[in-house]
């Protein structure tokens, strides 16, 4: 007998509250490298702008579609962090975003519990739109990050 695992959509369009809560779009303040961000989406969009560009700090204070639309103005020439320009879409760019996602979850017991409650589910990121080839964070990378964090939290809980 094959038991098909449940699938949980982590997205602002999810029908499951946990998918909504774990989405990068939600207003969910966190601190990363000593800076306060309104949301992971704001972080993702803000790092598209170089230091000194006023849209950078504006994006850091936004969430959801407001952040996403502001980020659409960026030329995607790089991801800018701590005086370094990382190649846009590179492994280093994805690792930087992963650091922000990890910080957000580490700072919220509720998000940790929500993520742990998805144990046994396959995490997907389906927004109902075709993924852009220029996306900052491909769905597969985002879901791998959350799955890794979930595994680490489960391991810590069982230790």
From TrEMBL:
Reaction equation(s) it catalyzes: 5-amino-6-(5-phospho-D-ribosylamino)uracil + H2O = 5,6-diaminouracil + D-ribose 5-phosphate; 2,5-diamino-6-hydroxy-4-(5-phosphoribosylamino)-pyrimidine + H2O = 2,5,6-triamino-4-hydroxypyrimidine + D-ribose 5-phosphate
Protein name from the UniProt record: Uncharacterized protein
Species this chain originates from: Paraburkholderia humisilvae
